[in-house]
């Protein structure tokens, strides 16, 4: 049973293990480099000693008696014949200490007065918990101490210390450079007083400096370096075990040689070798020495490598953990479900489970779930399996796997209060749904499950925007919360409908897109009139329950306007004034009389004028109709609005028909001629400029060279060519043209896309310049050398309808490639920026007093955002929509 | 019904000083001032509604606004262009924009790729072209090289000849006397002015030295401010005054030039602002610069997120970077630092220092598997399932 705060880790103390401590915690000395006997049992005193813990299932640990999962593993130790330096400390702390303490008396090289001064300063900083100042003072101490050439305490002369990568130190005495052995360093460090260490920033209680010289090496438990048994029965040991074998071997040889009284030289060589092995055991990527390698030539992955980097222990296992109760598959669209829903394949629903406790109120239901078992029969009504269950957990904690239960009916009768049934996922369960990269919090939202046939996750099209998903093969993940708290938080905080408003800019991020926008436009156009039967049909799709308003046209047949139908779905008291995307931004707005029907005016839930397009209901549009609905009527009503609206629009569009084809971008002969002339004109102007340049008549712009000036002017002329060609094309396309509808309503595409299809693709560029790489002095062998005319430098005068000439095609591909490279580079740089930002800011939160503090308690802002307003709850950044309030109050005041 | 006068309206709004911030109050005032015939009752009703809406828009305690801010700035980063150069205001100057510029701001770089200043002028200078030009000449850095056609070394005579360019000299307002004066100060031989050429005689020099001198003379500052390579004058149509744009930035030196309006001068070099104007100006400048970058890319990011980033960058009075050498590197927790970058170094050092991780941050608690102190985790509430109330009236025990 879950108990609140059963264990709580309060703090973690860091320190260095002393040799005594290492000996105390070791369960055994490791003395032999061999691992297994001939019969395959681990050797006692070897690296796989049974007392170090167990990794084989079923076996009990010889130290603690636990089995695999419960035995934490136990350390062993190796007594080193001669001490060696810990690499991690060599360059930083050992070097620092050697230089700032006396070689004879081990006191810090500062006179009594300075010692007192720094002690006072450091104490003061420590009292204020000012880590930054403390570490700066420590650095200052070192800087001052190492300048001394004579010890102020014992008057012994001090020599310069040289450090050589990775673990050697030399003392430059008058007699020449002398190596300081680890034993010598250890001896010096033992004499350093605790108060002197405090000045250098070392806490002697937790880490004496002599402990940085290892005389005993702890041997990590086997669970840290698990060996793998291959299918062939061959055992493959972990990299750490290999390294430890090396260490033990050399250690043994060193000891034997010392005991035999071998010559100094040999002993020193072996000592050096031992140092190498211990060094690479700690860190196999140290500068200055070759990394230790596996027999195959692969560098060994030793302790440091295990911790470091993205897949290291810290980022890979501790900050990011692997989970159970999750699923992943391809996503596909389903316009018939709610934005809150997610369609889950039946197969997945039968694997993911929710633990449900049996109580007196649900026992009958639970019994049925158990009876249905892991492979329930098909429910005739829904076409998918009934909800079953995979496991039951008895009050004593024993799990029963229902796959292996003979008679499910019997088992079902067995369950009672206090049992837990792990039942299959079923309709209405709350699950988390996620698409990577998870760039913002809307990348993980809570959905309601709908179990469906087939094998993909189904989602509503409107939630594509927050997930940034499309259906070209995207896969998404699903997680099932397992506790009641998790489910409650999930439902209240993370549900899709609670995420309609983005905290980034205070506007809806979930809204209509693509065809929904086109459909809304077509529906709410002035000319759209709908018969009674069709209105019924639409309102049925839109889930509308209520009465029909009076028809806009009564004779000869009753007809309703699209605006009327749209209004029926709006909450009855919405007031919005906005402008649609087709607004031409006239000096004086004619308001409701706008000839483009761009003035969107909604009063009391009636769309009185204006056409509905992306500006009004689209995703990523603030201060829109949708925004007002969410803000004033809450997320429930907004979800309802979006669900019914999208379904109705879809119904409308599938009857209305909407397609884009060749004919939409085809031009009458007259237009084609005009476009051709326009482009030729501009090309001629460009060529004239080149001639002027060749004659030396071109005037440079201030601050630019002649060539740059020419380039700039050619670019602008050719850009003008495309723009004017595009405008001509546009003139010949009416508003009834599908391409124009999509571009002007914001459903998909831009005017530029239309121009490129119908008129002229335009100049291709690389790094903002015309294309110039390729061959010597020309872009392609099709052109003369030094030809800098439009065509030779990537101007594409054809359009996509006609198709591109071979050279044009090549230039176009070059420009396209640049775009692809750009995206690839950008994702990595912006990903890193995001990681840094999150890491720097994640500890910030708002307190009950609206003060922003870090979790450490430092104040960052006295009032969040200066006004304490949550951007998500704001009206596009403004705390309150004052205009709307004034209007509302004054209108009620009048009558 | 009695209608309100303007002062009455103002008083009525300011009565609510405690209820909502100044920005909203002034907003209401300007909006209501445009409406004739307001009754006290209506205004009060409006104010009540605004207060209600304001209270509903406040942040909830425990909200992880840090993460939200980071995501709100980081997420649009994926949509930004990588294009480095773009034109700002004046066509002649290149300015870094887009993602690289945003990274530069958050990195608190000491040397931004394209430092840039906008220098507004004080009254007489801003109105007349000639006077503005004078200021321009005082700011733009002129070296010997920039006003000469050619600088040659004559090894036979051991001379350096500088052929002056009249047009350039005129343009920059430099006369030969100034050059001679500056060259003489070097005390590297005799300086003569003959026939629009300046000749430096240095007989007793080695060949090596004369080449070194040649280099030195080329870069010799004649006039202007260090670091500012170009100054462009442009007429601001709206303000109807001359404005200077500089490539390169040197705030302290430009501020000391007469005619420069110290209240309106701008630079995009944030570190320089920190050094000359202090931390509050720095905070504002981070907000302005970051907002400008996002706006130029057409990205909609609430200013509160940017303010939060600026605030944490300037929290301790210094300009701190977003990253390992700044905020993330100065965190109290060892585990938080180790899990960001340079893992092993942090672990080893903390062991030597005998540091203690109090586990107050987010990462630490994720690592040890405890509930994080954020959002719903900020609340300590323990239910006592076994506890039963004895009497209905005895609520507290």
Uncertain parts of chain B: none
Alpha-beta classification of chain A: alpha+beta
Question: Quick one: how many beta strands of chain B?
Answer: 13
What fraction of residues of chain A sit in β-strands?
5-15%
C-alpha geometry of chain A:
globular
Number of alpha- plus pi-helical segments of chain B = 18
**What share of the residues of chain B does DSSP label as strand, in percent?**
15-25%
Q: CA-to-CA gap between the ends of chain B?
A: 57 Å
Principal-axis shape of chain B: flat
> How would a crystallographer describe the biggest sheet of chain A?
6 strands, mixed, barrel
Rounded mean pLDDT score of chain A: 89
Helix content of chain B: 40-55%
What is the CATH topology classification name of the largest domain in chain A?
A: Barwin-like endoglucanases
Radius of gyration of chain B: 31 Å
CATH class of the largest domain in chain A: Mainly Beta
Low-confidence stretches of chain A: none
List how many beta strands of chain A DSSP finds.
Answer: 32
How far apart are the first and last residues' alpha carbons of chain A, in Å?
Answer: 63 Å
Oligomeric state of the chains? heterodimer
CATH class placement of the domain at 142-223 in chain B: Alpha Beta
Describe the fold and architecture.
The complex is a heterodimer of chains A (895) and B (397). Chain A is an alpha+beta fold and 895 residues long. Chain A is 38% helix and 15% strand. Chain A has five domains: 86-211, no CATH class; 326-507, Barwin-like endoglucanases, CATH 2.40.40.20; 511-656, RNA polymerase Rpb1, domain 3 (Enzyme I, Chain A, domain 2, Orthogonal Bundle); 662-820, RNA polymerase Rpb1 funnel domain (Topoisomerase I, Chain A, domain 4, Orthogonal Bundle), CATH 1.10.132; 843-895, no CATH class. A six-stranded mixed barrel of chain A has the order 9-17-10-16-15-18. In chain A, strands 11-14-12-13 form a four-stranded antiparallel sheet, covered by helices on one side. In chain A, a hairpin with a 5-residue loop joins β30 (845-846) and β31 (852-853). Chain A is globular. The mean pLDDT of chain A is 89. Chain B is of the alpha+beta class and 397 residues long. Chain B has 18 helices and 13 strands. Chain B has helices at 6-14, 22-33, 40-56, 65-74, 98-107, 123-127, 129-139, 144-147, 166-172, 176-185, 207-218, 251-255, 270-277, 279-296, 303-313, 334-338, 343-353, 362-368, and strands spanning 85-88, 90-96, 116-120, 142-143, 148-154, 159-164, 190-194, 197-201, 221-223, 230-236, 241-247, 266-267, 356-357. In chain B, α4 (65-74) crosses α15 (303-313), α5 (98-107) packs antiparallel against α14 and α13 (270-277) runs antiparallel to α14. Chain B starts with 5 loop residues before the first helix and ends in a 29-residue tail after the last helix.
């Amino acid at each position: 049973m879950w108990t609140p705060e059963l264990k709580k880790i309060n703090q973690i103390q860091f320190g260095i293990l002393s040799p005594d401590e290492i000996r105390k915690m070791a369960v055994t000395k490791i003395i032999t480099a061999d691992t297994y006997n001939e019969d395959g049992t681990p050797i006692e005193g070897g690296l796989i000693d049974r007392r170090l813990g167990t990794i084989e299932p079923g076996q009990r640990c010889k130290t603690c008696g636990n089995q695999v999962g419960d035995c934490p593993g136990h350390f062993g130790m190796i007594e080193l014949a001669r001490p060696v330096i810990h690499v991690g400390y060599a360059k930083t702390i050992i070097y620092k200490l050697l230089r700032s303490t006396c070689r004879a008396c081990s006191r810090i090289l500062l006179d009594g007065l300075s010692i007192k001064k720094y002690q006072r300063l450091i104490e003061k900083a420590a009292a204020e918990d000012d880590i930054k100042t403390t570490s700066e003072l420590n650095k200052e101490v070192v800087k001052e101490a190492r300048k001394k050439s004579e010890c102020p305490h014992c008057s012994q002369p001090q020599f310069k210390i040289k450090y050589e990568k990775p673990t050697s130190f030399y003392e430059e005495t008058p007699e020449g450079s002398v190596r300081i052995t680890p034993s010598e360093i250890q001896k010096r460090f033992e004499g350093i007083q605790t108060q002197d260490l405090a000045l250098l920033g070392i806490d002697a209680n937790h880490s004496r400096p002599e402990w940085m010289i290892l005389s005993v090496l702890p041997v990590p438990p086997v669970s840290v370096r698990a060996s793998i048994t291959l299918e062939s029965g061959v055992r493959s040991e972990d990299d750490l075990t290999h390294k430890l074998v090396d260490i033990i071997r050399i250690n043994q040889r060193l000891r034997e040689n010392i005991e035999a009284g071998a010559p100094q030289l040999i002993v020193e060589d072996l000592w050096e070798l031992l140092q190498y092995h211990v060094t690479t055991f700690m860190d196999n990527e140290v500068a200055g020495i070759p990394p230790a390698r596996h027999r195959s030539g692969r560098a060994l992955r030793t302790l440091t490598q295990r911790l470091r980097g993205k897949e290291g222990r810290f980022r890979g296992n501790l900050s990011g953990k692997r989970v159970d109760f999750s699923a992943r598959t391809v996503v596909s669209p389903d316009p018939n479900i709610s934005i809150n829903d997610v369609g889950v394949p039946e197969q997945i629903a039968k694997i993911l489970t929710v633990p449900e406790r049996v109580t007196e109120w649900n026992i009958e239901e639970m019994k049925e779930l158990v009876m249905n078992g892991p492979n329930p029969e098909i429910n005739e009504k829904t076409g998918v399996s009934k909800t079953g269950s995979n496991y039951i957990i008895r009050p004593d904690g024993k799990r029963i796997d229902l796959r292996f239960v003979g008679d499910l009916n019997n088992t079902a009768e067995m369950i009672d209060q206090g049992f837990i049934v792990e039942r299959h996922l079923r309709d209405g369960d709350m699950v988390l749904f996620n698409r990577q990269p998870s760039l913002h919090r809307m990348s993980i939202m809570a959905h309601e499950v709908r179990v469906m046939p087939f094998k993909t996750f189904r989602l509503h099209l409107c939630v594509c925007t927050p997930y940034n998903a499309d259906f070209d093969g995207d896969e998404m993940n699903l997680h099932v919360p397992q506790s009641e708290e998790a489910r409650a938080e999930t439902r209240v905080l993370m549900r899709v409908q609670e995420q309609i408003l983005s905290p980034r800019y205070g506007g809806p991020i979930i809204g209509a897109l693509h065809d929904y926008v086109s459909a809304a436009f077509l529906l709410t156009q002035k000319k759209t009139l709908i018969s009674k039967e069709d209105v019924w049909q639409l309102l049925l799709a839109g889930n509308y329950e209520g009465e029909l308003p009076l028809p806009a046209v009564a004779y000869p047949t009753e007809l309703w306007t699209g605006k009327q139908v749209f209004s029926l779905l709006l909450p009855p008291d919405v007031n919005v004034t906005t402008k649609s995307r087709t607004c031409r931004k006239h000096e004086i707005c004619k308001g409701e009389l706008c000839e483009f029907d761009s003035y969107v005016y909604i009063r009391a839930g009636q769309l009185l004028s204006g056409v509905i397009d992306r500006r009004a209901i689209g995703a990523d549009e603030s201060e829109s109709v949708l925004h007002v609905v969410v803000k004033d009527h809450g997320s429930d009503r907004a979800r309802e609005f979006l669900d019914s609206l999208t379904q109705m629009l879809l119904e409308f569009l599938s009857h209305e028909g909407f397609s884009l084809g060749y004919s939409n971008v085809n031009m009458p002969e007259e237009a084609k001629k005009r476009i051709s002339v326009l482009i030729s004109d501009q090309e001629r102007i460009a060529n004239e400029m080149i001639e002027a340049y060749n004659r030396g008549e071109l005037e440079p712009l201030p601050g630019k060279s002649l060539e740059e000036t020419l380039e700039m002017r050619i670019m602008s002329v050719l850009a003008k060519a495309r723009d004017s060609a595009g405008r001509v094309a546009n003139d010949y396309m009416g508003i009834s043209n599908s391409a124009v509808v999509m571009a002007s309503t914001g459903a998909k595409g831009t005017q530029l896309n239309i121009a490129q299809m119908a008129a002229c693709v335009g100049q291709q560029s690389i790094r903002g310049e015309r294309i110039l790489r390729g061959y010597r002095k020309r872009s392609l062998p099709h052109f003369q050398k030094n030809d800098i005319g439009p065509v030779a430098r990537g101007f594409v005068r054809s359009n996509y309808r006609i198709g591109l000439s071979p050279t044009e095609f090549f230039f176009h591909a070059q420009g396209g490639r640049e775009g692809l490279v750009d995206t690839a580079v950008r994702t990595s740089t912006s990903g890193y920026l995001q990681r840094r930002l999150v890491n720097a800011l994640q500890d910030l939160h708002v307190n009950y007093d609206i003060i922003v503090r870090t979790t450490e308690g430092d104040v960052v802002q006295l009032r969040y955002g200066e006004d304490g307003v949550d951007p998500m709850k704001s009206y596009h950044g403004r705390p309150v929509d004052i205009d709307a309030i004034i209007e509302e109050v004054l209108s009620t005041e009048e009558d | 019904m009695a209608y309100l006068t303007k002062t009455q309206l103002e008083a009525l709004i300011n009565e609510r000083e405690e209820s909502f911030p100044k920005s909203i109050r002034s907003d209401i005032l300007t909006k209501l001032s445009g409406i004739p015939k307001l009754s006290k009752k209506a205004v009060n009703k409006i104010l009540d509604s605004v207060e209600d809406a304001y209270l509903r828009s406040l942040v909830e305690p425990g909200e992880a606004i840090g993460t939200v801010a980071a995501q709100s700035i980081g997420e649009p980063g994926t949509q930004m262009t990588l294009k480095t150069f773009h034109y700002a205001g004046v066509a002649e100057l290149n300015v870094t924009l887009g993602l690289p510029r945003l990274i530069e701001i958050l990195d608190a770089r000491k040397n931004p790729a394209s430092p840039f200043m906008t220098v507004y002028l004080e009254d007489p200078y801003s109105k007349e072209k000639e006077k503005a030009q004078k200021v321009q000449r005082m700011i733009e850095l002129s070296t010997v090289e920039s006003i000469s056609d050619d600088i040659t070394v004559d090894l036979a005579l051991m001379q350096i000849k500088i052929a002056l360019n009249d047009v350039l000299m005129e343009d920059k307002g430099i006369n030969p006397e100034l050059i001679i004066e500056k060259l003489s100060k070097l005390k590297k031989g005799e300086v003569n002015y003959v026939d629009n050429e300046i000749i430096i005689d240095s007989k007793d020099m080695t060949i090596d030295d004369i080449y070194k001198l040649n280099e030195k003379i080329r870069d010799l500052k004649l006039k202007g401010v260090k670091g500012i390579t170009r100054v462009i004058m442009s007429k601001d149509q709206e303000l109807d005054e001359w404005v200077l744009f500089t490539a390169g930035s040197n705030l302290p030196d430009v501020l000391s030039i007469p005619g420069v309006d110290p209240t309106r001068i701008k630079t995009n070099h944030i570190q320089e602002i920190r050094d000359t104007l202090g931390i509050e100006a720095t905070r504002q400048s981070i907000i302005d610069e970051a907002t400008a970058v996002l706006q130029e890319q057409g990205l909609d990011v609430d200013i509160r997120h940017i303010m939060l980033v600026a605030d944490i960058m300037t929290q301790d009075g210094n300009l701190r970077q977003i990253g390992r050498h700044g905020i993330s590197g100065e965190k109290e927790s060892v585990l938080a630092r180790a899990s960001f970058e340079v893992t092993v170094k942090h672990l080893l050092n903390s062991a030597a220092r005998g540091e203690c991780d109090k586990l107050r941050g987010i990462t630490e608690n994720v690592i040890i598997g405890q509930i994080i102190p954020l959002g719903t985790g900020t609340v300590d509430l323990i239910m006592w399932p076994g506890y039963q109330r004895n009497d209905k009236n005895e609520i507290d025990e």
